[in-house]
Automatic annotation (TrEMBL):
SUPFAM superfamilies: Periplasmic binding protein-like I (SSF53822). Belongs to the leucine-binding protein family. Keywords: Amino-acid transport, Signal, Transport. GO terms for biological process: amino acid transport. InterPro entries: Leu-bd (IPR028081), Leu_Ile_Val-bd (IPR000709), Peripla_BP_I (IPR028082). The lineage of its organism: Bacteria, Pseudomonadati, Pseudomonadota, Betaproteobacteria, Burkholderiales. This is Branched-chain amino acid ABC transporter substrate-binding protein. The keyword Phosphoprotein does not apply.
Length: 381
């Protein structure tokens, strides 16, 4: 037959049809990366569950792009909080042809992974990476929906010196991109407010014994100790401070500002002993939306929100809103629309991006703990 297609030509035709944009729009893949194993897996899972709730709710409502209904699919990867594993996870998502990525949790994994996404042209929104360097590499694909450490660390430094009236302030960091970065900004904030740093020590994010560095600091009689790192390390630090008879207040960034911290401290945390800031926060008018989110999250997962699940949820919403507005899930087509996001109404508040991909007018929430529960002190912008 003159019109018959050869097997080779037929295979090529089928391949081109399957690769066509119309087919790709049937399923829109959104990647999520965070540490879902290891000491801070509870935080990585919190972020992933927030993203998954957004996908489930959007699918239930129905998402239409360019007049065609699509199904959202979340592809979750574990980076274990490790930079090398983080870039491997990023490449795996790129190879899976994801349309966008929510993640990573940690600055130390988000920063190297951002190059992988930038090289592939895939938009990345981190719900929780706060190191300033994350958005300073000139990548057009890099965004975040929380304030950075310049704001967070500096605010905590001023708070420790002025509001907590720290006379002798010590600093410990875990040498990660996040921990060291926020500690550096804290130290600048203390000095800018006229406070005195009496000592600085460092550990690592896998350590469990802090007796040596705490004994060194105890001799300097600090009334405030800042820890740059995550709650899995802050909990044991609090326990060992108690064992050494140290009554100093512990101050930290969003890495320690979790619902899990009292459990990790194993009952050694005193009321109003810990003060922390979360790189995000909702004003009075937004509280009902956040409470509604927490209720839906618990109903869906049987778990309480740890820290950044609502920001993961909003990151998914921002990505999808840009796709809908652009009329395409093709990263090259919707990326310019994403970059111009203005006043997206999320559960965490209105989201707009500046030229670097940072959130405009990002909020911070200051917290303390009483009777094992986290209590909000103030929202600062």
């Amino acid at each position: 037959m003159k019109n018959a297609l050869s097997p080779t030509l037929l295979a090529g035709l089928l391949a081109s049809l399957l690769a066509a944009p119309a087919f790709a729009q049937d399923v829109v893949r959104i990647g999520h990366v965070g540490p879902t194993s290891g000491a801070i897996a509870h935080l990585g899972k919190d972020n992933e569950l927030g993203a998954r709730l957004a996908v489930d709710e959007l699918n239930a409502k129905g998402v239409v792009i360019a007049g065609k209904k699509v199904k959202l699919e979340l592809l979750g990867e574990d980076d274990a909080g490790d930079p090398k594993q983080g870039t491997q996870a990023a490449q795996k998502l790129v190879d899976s042809k994801v349309n966008g990525v929510v993640g990573h949790l940690n600055s130390g994994t988000s920063i190297p992974a951002s190059k992988v996404y930038a090289d592939a042209g895939v938009p990345q929104i981190s719900p929780s990476s706060t190191n300033p360097k994350f958005t300073r590499n000139g990548y057009k694909t890099t965004f975040r929906v929380v304030a950075d450490d310049v704001h967070l660390g500096g605010t905590l430094g001023r708070y420790a010196a002025k509001d907590l009236k720290g006379q002798a302030i010590a600093v410990i960091d875990d040498r990660t991109a996040y921990g060291q970065g926020v500690a550096d900004e804290f130290e600048k904030g203390v000095k800018g407010a006229g406070g005195k740093i009496v000592g600085r020590e460092f550990t690592n994010d896998k350590a469990t014994d802090f007796t040596a560095i705490l004994t060194t600091l105890k001799a300097k009689k600090p009334d405030v100790i800042f820890f740059g790192g995550m709650d899995a390390v802050a909990g044991p630090i609090l326990r060992q401070m108690k064992q050494l008879g140290m009554n100093a207040k512990l101050v930290g960034g969003d890495g320690i500002c979790t619902a899990e911290l009292p459990k990790l401290a194993a009952g050694t945390m005193g009321d109003s002993q810990v003060f922390c800031a979360e790189a995000g926060g909702v004003d009075a008018g937004q509280k009902q939306a956040m409470e509604d989110f927490r209720a839906r999250f618990k109903a869906a997962t049987k778990l309480e929100v740890q820290v950044y699940a609502p920001y993961s949820y909003d990151a998914v919403g921002v990505l999808v809103a840009a796709m809908v507005k652009a009329g395409s899930a093709d990263p090259a087509k919707y990326l310019p629309v994403l970059a111009k996001t203005e006043n997206y109404k999320g559960v965490t508040g209105n989201i707009s991006f500046d030229a670097k991909g940072d959130i405009k007018n990002g909020a911070l929430t200051l917290y303390t703990y009483k009777a094992g529960n986290r209590e909000s002190l103030a929202v600062i912008r």
